């Protein structure tokens, strides 16, 4: 960490321990009385591009999807419970809880997800669409119950700033949709929202952790200031938060539209964290600077380029279903949030076939008659800890009309399984070259990297120098449905790996491997490698889920190799 960050953390820790702000000592009801002169919540009237209320219908009956697993909620929910494991976090001071531990109630993210209030957006949206009061009543009563039972600085839900921030965003948006809400129920909700927004301002995630967490904190400040006219400190929150959104948009979205976090799956979430506060700001009369809109437009274009026919995108880096609005919407997050972004920045032209270079992000993307090929030659991740990056330099993926041929393994776990987290972001688990089964960059912790590999442009390809000194040079090209991969290596025990989707069928014939997925087939022939062999692997279709898969592996018999991958339809 840099001295500025160390000083900021030390100052916050000292203040919070010995001189905590008054607002953190108030109950939510007291916070409302001290911080508000009225309970009005401005409604964001932009229509959401989704009419699906399936999640809201389920919530009325206590049925909910927790990262794709069906769970049964209590009414009101037990806010300290991990509904996947059935275990509970202690109902004690937040400062006494270490959310990194997984031996208390399993991974904390499964409990945090319930506390983010994203379910409230589904209920509020259903109320707007149907005008049926049960959706409104359930939404209000559950938010009220949470606020009363989880006062500021108490319980697992106040152990991370981004949790407070997302709760503010979801809560403010939902209250705006619930017209003529009962003041008695609303006051504690608004009190907690204001406390959390102030906490975000006073404890910003600057420095090495200033990634999407910092965006979320600025977004919470902006939205609460713009949408709550009765909030006495609203102007301060709004002005500080909005300037932070402008600043971080230009920092965290590269000029070529890629995200600095090296994570495709986080893209729709980052869009929400940027565009939602800007929409509220414009509703409050503050237009968005054109420079910021241009950067968002570039990001939307990148999203369109990596989009597959079903609306999904290839996996690169971490992705954990992070969202603010309508988590149960059946549209892909890329399409759902992308539609909001498109409306905000203006219409974008359709993407044509071709080769697309993203120099700042470090990606080359090919689109050709339904084929999508990605080549990752970018940095490990953002800032000194590269929290969401993977050791996947010079890896590639191939999709044929959405059929996954060569894939990224995804990300299975965070705090709930540290061993699996390291495995899924390791070099041997990606479609690149490894030396002796080791990693390009040094893993220091579940969200921290040490010594890093470096990637530079070299001739007509890219060269990755490992933190331990080995070198791997690779070029990738696509022509007429044939992907050519050329490699050169300098180091002991080099191995080439191709990660296959779990549905892939493999037929090995000497130096040729036939891989079939659906009605598409890849003929993979290599020179400079020993014969392909099939080894076990894992694949994560979404956060918290994993299935067995296979990897094609081959050792080098020299210092260079060529892999030709010809894609064709089987019928």
SSE blueprint:
Blueprint: H1 3-18, H2 22-25, H3 28-35, H4 54-60, E1 63-66, E2 69-72, H5 108-115, H6 118-130, H7 133-149, H8 161-177, H9 183-202, H10 212-227, H11 234-252, H12 267-283, H13 290-305, H14 333-345, E3 354-358, E4 363-368, E5 371-376, E6 396-400, E7 403-406, H15 418-424, E8 433-435, E9 443-445, E10 448-449, E11 454-458, E12 461-465, E13 471-479, E14 482-490, E15 494-499, E16 505-509, E17 512-517, E18 520-527, E19 533-539, E20 547-555, E21 560-569
Antiparallel strand pairs: 1-2, 3-4, 4-5, 5-6, 6-7, 8-15, 9-10, 11-12, 12-13, 13-14, 14-21, 15-20, 16-17, 17-18, 18-21, 19-20
Helix pairs in contact: 3-9, 4-6, 6-7, 6-8, 7-9, 8-9, 8-10, 9-10, 10-11, 10-12, 11-12, 12-14, 13-14
The CATH homologous superfamily of the largest domain is called Chondroitin AC/alginate lyase
Q: Please summarize the sheet with the most strands.
A: 8 strands, antiparallel
Number of domains: 2
Overall geometry comes to elongated
Rg from alpha-carbon coordinates: 24 Å
Number of helices: 15
Low-confidence stretches: none
Percent strand = 15-25%
How many β-strands, per DSSP?
21
Assigned CATH class of the largest domain: Mainly Alpha
The whole-number mean of residue pLDDT values reads 95
Helix content: 25-40%
CATH topology of the largest domain: Glycosyltransferase
- Main sheet: strand order: 11-12-13-14-21-18-17-16
Task: Describe this structure as you would to a colleague.
The structure is a single chain. Helix content is 35%, strand content 21%. The protein is of the alpha+beta class and 571 residues long. The protein has two domains: 23-345, Glycosyltransferase; 354-569, Beta-galactosidase, Chain A, domain 5, CATH 2.70.98.70. Strands 11-12-13-14-21-18-17-16 form an eight-stranded antiparallel β-sheet, with no helix packed on it. A five-stranded antiparallel β-sheet has the order 3-4-5-6-7, with no helix packed on it. A hairpin with a 4-residue loop joins β3 (354-358) and β4 (363-368). α6 (118-130) runs parallel beside α8 (161-177) and α13 runs antiparallel to α14. The protein is elongated. The relative contact order is 0.09. The model has no long low-confidence stretch (mean pLDDT 95).
């Amino acid at each position: 960490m840099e001295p500025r960050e160390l000083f900021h953390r030390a100052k916050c820790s000292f203040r919070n321990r010995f001189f905590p702000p008054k607002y953190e000592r108030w109950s939510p009801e007291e916070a409302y009385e001290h911080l508000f002169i009225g309970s009005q919540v401005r409604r964001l009237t932009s229509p959401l591009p989704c009419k699906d209320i399936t999640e809201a219908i389920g919530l009325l009956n206590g049925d909910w999807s927790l990262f794709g697993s069906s769970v049964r909620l209590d009414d009101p929910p037990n806010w300290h419970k991990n509904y996947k494991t059935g275990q509970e976090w202690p109902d004690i001071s937040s400062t006494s809880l270490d959310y990194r531990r997984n031996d208390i109630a399993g991974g904390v993210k499964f409990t945090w997800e319930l506390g983010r209030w994203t379910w409230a957006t589904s209920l509020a949206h259903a109320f707007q669409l149907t005008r049926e009061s049960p959706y409104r009543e359930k939404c209000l009563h559950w938010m009220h119950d949470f606020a009363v039972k989880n006062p500021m600085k108490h319980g697992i839900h106040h152990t991370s700033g981004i949790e407070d921030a997302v709760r503010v965003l979801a809560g403010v948006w939902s209250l705006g949709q619930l017209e003529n809400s009962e003041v008695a129920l609303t006051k504690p909700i608004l009190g907690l929202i204001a406390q959390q927004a102030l906490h975000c301002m006073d404890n910003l995630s600057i420095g090495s952790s200033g990634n999407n967490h910092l965006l979320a904190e600025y977004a919470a400040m902006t939205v609460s200031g713009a949408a709550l006219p009765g909030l006495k400190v609203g102007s301060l929150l709004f002005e500080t938060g909005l300037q932070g959104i402008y600043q971080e948009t230009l920092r965290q979205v590269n000029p070529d539209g890629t995200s600095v976090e090296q994570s495709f799956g986080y893209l729709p979430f980052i869009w929400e964290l940027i565009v939602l506060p800007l929409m509220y700001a414009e509703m409050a009369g503050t237009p968005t600077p054109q420079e910021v809109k241009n950067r968002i437009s570039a990001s939307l274009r990148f999203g369109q380029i990596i989009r597959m026919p079903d609306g999904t995108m290839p996996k690169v880096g971490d992705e954990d279903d992070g969202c603010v609005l309508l988590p149960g919407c059946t549209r892909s997050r890329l399409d759902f949030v992308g539609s909001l972004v498109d409306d905000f920045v203006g219409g974008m032209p359709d993407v044509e076939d071709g080769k697309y270079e993203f120099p700042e992000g470090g990606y080359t993307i090919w689109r050709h008659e339904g084929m999508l090929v990605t080549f990752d030659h970018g940095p490990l991740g953002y800032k000194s800890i590269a929290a969401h990056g993977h050791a996947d330099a010079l890896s590639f993926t191939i999709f044929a009309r959405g059929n996954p041929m060569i894939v990224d393994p995804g990300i299975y776990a965070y705090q709930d399984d540290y061993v699996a987290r390291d495995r899924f972001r390791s070099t041997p688990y990606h479609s690149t070259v490894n030396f002796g089964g080791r990693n390009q960059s040094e893993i220091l912790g579940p969200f921290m990297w040490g010594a890093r590999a470096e990637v530079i442009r070299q001739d007509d390809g890219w060269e990755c120098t490992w933190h331990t000194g080995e070198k791997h040079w690779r070029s990738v090209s696509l022509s007429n449905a044939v992907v050519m991969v050329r490699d050169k290596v300098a180091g002991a025990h080099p191995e080439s790996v191709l990660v296959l989707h779990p549905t892939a069928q493999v037929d090995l014939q000497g130096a040729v491997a036939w891989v079939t997925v659906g009605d598409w087939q890849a003929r993979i022939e290599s020179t400079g490698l020993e014969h392909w062999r099939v080894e076990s692997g894992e694949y994560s279709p979404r956060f918290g889920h994993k299935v067995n898969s296979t990897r094609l592996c081959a050792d080098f018999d020299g210092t260079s190799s060529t892999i030709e991958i010809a894609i064709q339809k089987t019928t």
